[in-house]
Amino acid sequence: MSSKHYLVPDYILKFKCSMCTECCKRWRIDIDKKTVEKYERLAAEDGDLSVLLAEHLKKDKTGKGIIVLKNREKSLPAQTGEGEKEPDAVDFMVAPCLSGDGLCSIQKKYGLEALPDTCKIYPRNIFLTERGWEMALTYACATAAQTLKEKRPVEFYQDPEGFEFPSLSTYNGKIGNLMERKKKGKTSYFEVEELLVDIMQSREMDIDARLTLAGLMVDKLKDGDTSGVKRYLQNLDAELINRLNTMPAQPLFMMKLVKEAVDKRLFIAITEKDIARLLVIAYNQLKLLDEGMITEEKVRRLLDGYHKYYKPYMTDISHIYENYFVNFIFSKKFYTYKYVDAYFLMVFFYTLVRFFTICVCLAEERNVDEDMVVGVISAVERSIGHSNAYFEDVLRQIKQGEYHRLPYVISLINL
Q1: What's the rounded Cα separation, in Å, for the pair 112 and 104?
Q2: Which of 81, 259, 362, 399 has its CA 20 to 30 A from that of 355?
Q3: DSSP assignment string, 256-311
Q4: CA 158 to centroid of chain Cα atoms
Q5: What is the pLDDT along the chain (415 residues), one digit of tens a residue?
Q6: Checking DSSP bridges between strand 57-59 and strand 29-31, what pairing results, if any?
Q7: 255 plus 401 within the same structural domain
Q8: Considering the domain boundaries, does residue 83 fall inside one?
């Protein structure tokens, strides 16, 4: 029996890698020090590995390393009218250990345990807490994003039977008693996490009301009184829920925030084709985020799409957002950041996903569905969901702009 303890959501147990190889492209691959040393020992007797390390492993002063990606030609099976092969296409920024059959040459030769922690973990986020090893997913992986379609509420399992995970040389997150005592305001973090998950799974409310209620709870947590929050939640009634559902909307603020955030990202080269497609739709096709000001006419066009293609079908996609938010919470964002900052980020991602989803609805003149929302989530997450630096930029932008007060942030939720 394993000496490790695990606390994992059911979607971790259901996730199966589809071997799409996208995780081996356009990503920085960090190699921990122990794995670098292991590779150097293996390379002493493995000529191919020795060449790979010499050409593509870049070490720092601490002994850690990164894999330098390469461009690789790939043959296309298509034929021209004259029977000649099309010119070879190029895979940009590919891991040099990715073989032609889509498998990792290091894993094929030396097994799963030979992989660096980065490759063992992805697309999971792993944290060591007083409850054990806890795992969530990153939806930058398109296959992981498919788990969002599960209609039943997420359930969590302590030490699920038969579940095991490869050993890690290091771990990225440690959340335990010692760190909780050191981190101001986080002594009851796990209670807060459970309360937030409960709110997100309260299906008597629509998803916007749940997100709004989470904001009110976060505001009440400023003094750290979780018992007061519990009493507040116990006294919820139909009238309050209705008020949450009918809070005034600020679509102009919402579009302005999206434009400012996306404009900032556009200064960085976009290498992901899915987010590039969404930007083309929003900027060029619909002119909703073009060089001009965010006008009432643009807002009206977005709202027309929302009411025609999106709002009538929200009940068909609400479970996707519910699962998305539960994973966001379980990814320890509310531990990593101040409660209100984590909430701002959650609303920001919701705002961004919903905006681009409505853009797709308008461009394709069709109703929103599961595949559309999941595709947008994966595109957004792959582009910015892994960037802590971008998170900090967004928070700075929110605090410096017109959105720094909680009522403004909550007003971004309703349309």
Answers
A1: 10
A2: 399
A3: HHHHHHHHHHHTSPP--HHHHHHHHIIIIIS-SSSSS---HHHHHHHHHHIIIIIG
A4: 24
A5: 457 889 999 999 999 887 777 778 877 888 989 999 999 999 999 999 999 999 999 999 898 988 888 776 554 444 444 444 444 444 567 888 888 777 788 998 999 888 888 888 889 999 888 888 999 999 999 999 999 999 999 999 999 998 888 888 776 566 766 556 556 666 678 888 999 999 999 998 899 989 988 988 888 776 566 776 777 677 666 676 677 667 777 788 888 888 887 776 654 555 678 888 998 999 888 888 887 788 888 999 999 999 999 999 999 999 999 999 999 999 999 988 888 889 989 999 999 999 999 999 999 999 999 999 999 999 999 888 777 777 887 788 777 766 667 777 878 888 8
A6: unpaired
A7: yes
A8: no
pTM of the predicted model as reported, rounded to 2 decimal places: 0.87
What does the block give as tokens for 231?
Answer: 């009493």
Helix (H) or strand (E) holding 340: helix 339-364
Q: How far apart are CA 216 and CA 303, in angstroms?
A: 26
- The Cα–Cα gap between 135 and 113 comes to 19
**Contacts of 333 by beta carbon, 8 Å cutoff, 6+ apart:** 342, 345, 346
> Would you give the DSSP letter of residue 108?
H
- Does 136 share its domain with 240? no
Total domains present in the chain: 3
For residue 306, the enclosing domain spans 249-411
| 255 in the same domain as 404 | yes
- Strands of the sheet with 156-158, listed across from one edge: 156-158, 6-9, 132-137, 124-129, 173-175
* Cα separation, 371 vs 352, whole angstroms: 17
Give the span between the Cα atoms of 359 and 376, in whole angstroms: 10
Structure tokens at 230: 């519990």
Integer Cα distance of 92 and 247 in angstroms: 47
Same domain (yes/no): 301, 402:
yes
Q: How far apart are CA 2 and CA 226, in angstroms?
A: 34
